[in-house]
Structures
1.
Amino acid sequence: MRNFLEIVNVFLLCIGALTAQVNSHPIVQPTIMVVPFAKEVEKLRAAYEKSDVNRIAITKVKEAFDKRGVNTIDLIGKLKQTNNNAALQEEQANETMDQVVSLSGADIYVVVEANKKYSSTGNSATVILNAYDAFSGESLANKVGNSPLVYSENFDKLIEKAVEAEIDNLLNTLQEKFTNVLNEGRSIVVTLGVESTSALSLEKEINDSGDLLSEAIEDWMKSNAFKGNYHLQGVTRNKMIFDIVKIPIHTPSGTNYRLRDFTSDLRKYLRSINLSTKQTVQGNNVVYTLSEGKDKE
Amino acid sequence: MRNFEIFILVFFFQSMLVVDAQTERFQRNGMVEFIRSEGQVITVSSKHFSKEKKRVGYNCERNALENILFRGISNSNQTNPMLEGVSELDSRLAELLENDYIQFIIYSECVELNKSKKIYYATQVVSVDLQALRKYLEEKKVIRKFGL
C-alpha cells in the first residue's frame, strides 16, 4: 500500500512538473526604440534636439512601454554608442533613421511626431505614432492622438494628453500583431538563383524518381516552413522566389528561433544534394546563389 | 389545517422568489460610455437593471468591466477589448467576474436610480484600474505579457 502511494505521489509530481513546463512558455520581449520623425536625409539627433514637443512625446511613449514591462533602447544612448564605435567614426553621417535603426538591433521602432495647434477656440496638440517591424519594415500599428482644445500655452501637458489618448490602443494593437506572429509565424523572403557562370538548372533532375531540383527545394520548404506555410511566387530555369516563408518564433524546446537557424538548415539541405551555396541575408530577405558541387568548409 | 396550507403556499412562493433572484442571469449590454481616462485609470458610466435594488450596482459594475474586457470602450484609449480572442466562458474569468473584480474598481457611484414595473434601473459611474486588472489577468495566464 505504501509503495502504491509513493508511485502515485511520484506520478503526480511528474504531472505537476510537466504542467509547470507548459505554463512557463517563455515570452520574448521585443527590443523597442522610440525615435522622432525625421525627413529622409535629416539626422535623428537633430530631429530629437530641435523639437521639445517631440522629446516630451518620446518620453511619454517610452514610459508607456516601461509600464508594460518592456525596456526601450534609448536613442541618444545608442547614438553615442555608435559614434564611439571606431568602425563608424569615419562616416559621421550614420545618424539617419534607417542607419540608426539597422545599427540599434531593435526589433521594433516607433516613430513619433508631435505638433502644436493654435486656434481661436483653444490650443491643442497632435501626436502621430507609427510602429514598424525593423526586421521586415512592415507597419504594425498606427495611431493619431489628439489632446482636447484648451485655452493654454502649456503644450507639455497637451502633448501628454495627446499621447495618453492613444498609447494604450497602440500597445494593444502591437500585442495583437505579436499574437498573430506567434500563431502564424514570421514572414521571410527566400530567393534561390543559379550563379551566372554555372551550368546548373533548377529544371535538372536530381534523383532516379525524376524529381526536378526546384520540386525538391519546394518539398523541403513544405516540410520546414512553419506549419507548412509558404508561397512560391515563381520558378524559372535559374531563379526561384518564395515571397512568403513562415518561420516560427520559438523552437520546440522553447528557445528563440532565429533566422539563422532556418538559413543554416536550408544551406545544409542544399549541400546534401550536392550544391554549393553563397548566402546573403538582409533584414527578412535571404538570397542563395547556387552552383554545382559541395563547398569545402 | 387551513393555516398550515397557507403557510406551505407562502413558503413555496417565497422559495420561488429567492430562487428567481438567485438565478437572475447577468447579461451584458452596450450602455457604457467613456467619461475620461487619467493615466491607467478609465472612468465610464454604465447602465443596467435588476429586480433587486442591492444587485443593480453589481450589474452596472460588471457591465463596465465586461465591456472593457470583451468589447472595448469606443472613443477612449481602450477601443480594443482587453481580452481579444479569449473565450467569455473561460473558467478563469468566473472568479474575476463574480468576486475579484472589486479589487480593480477604485470608484463607483450610482448617479441615477429608477424603479419601473418592479425593476430597478441604474446609471453608475465606475473607475477601473487597468494596470492592476491587466497584471491580474497576466498572473492568471488569461492574457500574455506584452511581447512575443
2.
Amino acid sequence: MTIFNKVKDKLEDLRRPGYYKKYDHKFTMVIDLDRCNGCGACVAACYAENNLPVVGKDECGKSRALNWIRIERYVEGEYPDVKVKFIPVMCQHCSKAPCEVGCPVYATYHNQDGLNVQVYNRCVGTYTCATYCPYDARRFNWFTYKREKPLDQQYNPDVTVREMGVMEKGTFCIQRIRAAKDKAKDEKRALKDGDVTPSCAQACPTGAMVFGDLNDPESRVSKLAKSPRRFRLLEELNTDPSVIYLKRVMKDGSGTSE
Amino acid sequence: MAQGHQNSNSSYKAVNEDIYGIISKSGITYYIICGLFGAGAGALFILPWAYQIYVGQGVTGLNVPVFWGIYLVNFVFWVGVAHAGTLISAMLFITETPWRRAISRGAETMTFFALLLVSLFIFIHMGRPWNAYWTFPYPTHRQLWTSFISPLTFDVFAIGTYTTSSVIFLYFGLIPDLAALSHTASGWRKQLYEFLSFGWRGTDAQWYTQNKACMFFSAFIMPLVVSVHSIVSWDFALSIVPGYTKTIFAPYFVTGALLSGLAGVLLMLSTMRAAYPVMKKYITDYHYDRIGMLVLVLSLMWSYLTFVEVATGLYANTSQELEHLKFKIATPPYMYLFALMIFCNSVLPLIYTIRKVRITVFGRFVAPVFILVGMWLERYLIIPNSLSRKFLPWMWHDYSPSWVEISISVGTLMMFISLFMVFVRVFPIIAIFEVKEDLGVPMKSKKHH
C-alpha cells in the first residue's frame, strides 16, 4: 500500500504545478448572490484598478472585451413571467487549475499565496490556458491597447500594462495583496483579516463580496464558507475553485431574489 | 508473386536516364507554374503573416471562447498528411512490400514538407512567436524551464523527433541515388550530388551500413507514426472541454491522419504522373490499386471510430456533451459541414471497393481531393467548434476565420506545392536504387542502349 500511496502522491504533485507544497495563504472570495443586485460596479472598479483597456463596440461584438470580471445574466421564461438570474464570474483561482497543466512555459502557476498567477513576461501566447479554462475567465491582448493622451494619466502605477500577444485574467488584485503583505512585514505582524480588499469587493455597494484567507479559521470568509447556502461554480469538474457563491434555493428550485 | 507493380523493360541505364530526365529536362511551363506558386506563397502567406505579427492576433477571427482557430486545424491537418510518407516508407519497408519502392521517395518528401508547414503553423498561431524558443528546454541564467506536464511540451518533443528522424530517413535513402546521378549530371548539380553523397562508392560495406541504417530508422519511425499523432490529439484530449476530452481521440486521430496522408499520396502521384509521363513506367495501376485498398480500409476504420465518438457522447448523456453534439450535428451551418465530412470520408471512399474505380482518374485524383477536404472539416468540427460551446452559456460565441487566416492557409498550401516542385527538380523523386532492385540484375543477353 505504501508504494501505491507514494505513486498516488507523486501523481497528485504532478497535477499541481508550481514550486510550493504548502501555501502561506488560501485566498478566497465569497460572493453572496442573495445580496448581489447585478449593478456592475465590480466590473467598472476592475477596469479602473487593473488598467484594463476599453476596446469599443466592434471588438465587444466579437466577444473580445477585456473584462476580468463579468456579470452573467440568464433570462428564463417568456415576457410577462420572466426571471433573470445573474452571477458575477471572474478567475476562480482553482486549486487544481486546468490552465496550469496546459502552459508549456510555466507562464501560469500557483504562487506561495495559493493564487493562480499569470506571468505576462513569460507568456508566449499558445492560448492553451484559455482553451482549457472551463470558466472562460481568461482574456487575450489581441492588439497593443493604448489609452489616448490625457487618459493615460488614469493608469494605476501598481499594475503592469500588458503588451500584444499575452494572456491575462483576474488576479484578486495581487498588487493589493503584495502591498498589504509588505505593510504587515514592516509592522512585524501576520497578515490579518481585512487587510486586503480587491477593488471589486471594495466597490460592491451591497457588500456581497467578501475576501480573505481560508486558512485563518477566524476570518470572515471561513465563517461564511460554512454557510449551507454555499456552492462553487462547476464544482463537478473537480477544479477546486477558490470562489465560493452563496445562494438560497427554494424547494421548487427558484432563488429568493428574482 | 506477380510483379505487376513495374513495367520491367528497362535497363539500369534507362532508369538512370529516365529519372535524371525528370530532374534536368523540363519546359519553361514548369518554372512558370513553380514561380507562380512561390509568388502566391509570398503574397498570400508571408505578407499577411508579417501584418499579423506587426498588428497582433486580433486580425484573426479568434474570440474569447474560441482561441484555437483554423491555424490549429491546419497544424493537425498537415501532421496528418505527413503521416503517409512514414507509413509507406517505414511500415512497408519493414514488411518488405515490393510496390513501396517506386513511391516511397515521393511520400517521404511529402512528409518532410508537410512537417515544415506543421512547425510553421505552431509559430503562426502563437501570440508572441518571437519567443517560441522558450518552449524548448535550454539552459538559461534565469533558471527557467519548460513544463513537462503540458501537452504542448509533449508536442515540441514529438514533432521535433519526428521531423529530425524523417529528414535523416529521407537523406539516407537519397545517398546511393545521388552518387548514381553524380555520374550523369553536370555543372552545379554534379558538385551538389558529389558533396551530398559523401563519397559513396557502392562497396559492400557501404550498402550493408545503408541498409542497416534504413532498417533502424524504419523501426524507429514506425512507433512514432502512432505516438506523434496521439500526442497531437492529447493537446485536445487532456483538457476538460466537452468535445475535446475523449479517450478515443488518439486512435481516432491516427486513423484520420493515415487516411488523409494516403489521399495526399494518391493526389501527389497522379499530379506527378500527369506532369512527367515517363513516370508511368514506374508508377503503375498496381500502385493505385494497392493504395486504394489501404484507403478503403482506413476509411472504414475512420467511420467506425466516428460512430463510436458520437455514440459514446450520446450515451453518456451529460448536458455539456449533448450541447456540444447538438451544435456540431444538428445546428446549421455546421450540420451541413458534418454531413459533407461523412460523405467525403465514409461514403465516397466506399467506391474503392471496386477495382476499376481504384485505377480510374476518379479514384486516383477526384476522390482523394474529397477525402482531404473531409479530413480538414473533421479537424475544423473538432477544434474551433467544440470551443464555441463550452460550459457557461453566457460566453458562448461562434467563430469564423478572417481573411488573414484564410489567406495564410492558402498561401502555405502554395508554398508546399512550390517547394515540392523545386525538390523534384533537384533530387530524384523516384528511388533509383530501389527501382533497380526490382528490375533484378541485367542479363548479358539483354540489349544495351
